[in-house]
Specification:
Radius of gyration: 17 Å
Shape: globular
Strand order of the largest sheet: 3-2-5-6
Strand content: 5-15%
Distance between the termini: 37 Å
Number of strands: 6
Amino acid sequence: MINLGNDWTQILSGEFSSEYYLKLREFLKREYLTYKIYPHMNDIYNALRYTPYSKVKAVILGQDPYHGAGQAHGLCFSVKKGIAKPPSLNNIFKELNSDLGLPIPNHGELTSWAESGVLLLNTSLTVREGMANSHQNMGWEILTDRMISILNAREKPVVFILWGKNARLKAKLVTNNRHFILESAHPSPLSAHNGFFGNRHFSKTNEFLNANGIEPVEWRIESL
C-alpha cells in the first residue's frame, strides 16, 4: 500500500491494488534495476504529497518528467534548486512576469506552487534517462486520468491548466461546468510564441478562484 501522507492515499487505494497498477509496478521494478530512471523512486508521487486532494485549487498538466540528470523531482515543469532552469520553465516564468508583474526567480523549484494548491501533475510519472516518453502506455496514463476524473467529480471548483497538445487532449475528462479549463500552446521554445505567451493563465486562475470564494494561488516564488 502506498502511503502519500494525506487524503490521496485512501482516494487512490483502489487504483494501487488494481491489475493495471500491479503490472506497472512490476515494470518499474525492472526499469529501476536496469536503467537510470527519473525521478528518484522516492519522488515519484511528490505532486500528490505536496498537494492533498482537499487542497487542490488548480492542476497544471505536463507530459512526462524531465529526462536529464538531476532535473525531475516529481512536480511537472519543476527542477530542484541549484539545477539550471529548462527552456520551457524559463518561458513559464516570462509569462508569469508579464501577466502578474512578479519577479523571475533565480531557481526553478515550484514546490511553493504545489503547497499553495497547484497539483503539478505529469501524465506519466517516470522516464528513462535521455528517452522522452519512454514510459508512455505502461499504465501511468490510466492512473493520472483517474486522478483528473476524481477531481472533475468534486464539488469544489478546480482550474485545469492545459498547455500543449497532449495536455489539451485531457480536457475531455473535465465534464462538470463548475470547473474552469484554460488551454494554450506549450511553453516550449518551439511553440511558446504560438499562443502561450500572453495567455494570462496565472491571473485568470486567480480571478476564477476569487469569484468562487476560494483563496487565490500564491504564484510568487522567492529567489534564493
